[in-house]
Amino acid sequence: LLFRSWHRGIRETDLVLGRLADAHMADLSDADLDTYERLLDTVPDHDLYVWVTGEAPVPDAQRSDLLDRIIRFHNSGDR
User: Could you count the other beta carbons within 10 Å of the beta carbon of residue 17?
Assistant: First the structure.
């Protein structure tokens, strides 16, 4: 998952997910890791990026505690 976080396809998403993974991958529960893997498998880079940056709202079907955590991490400046 760490490798996949840094190699998504578009650099902007790599930076968002790679930095989060470096900082918090070890802290994630098994359930969070499952959610994270599903996110990597199903959400296109562009969609994820515009949700994290606030350019587009997160659809209810995609909202999760983990995605909220990714958004907070990105917006906290811990980049």
Answer: 27
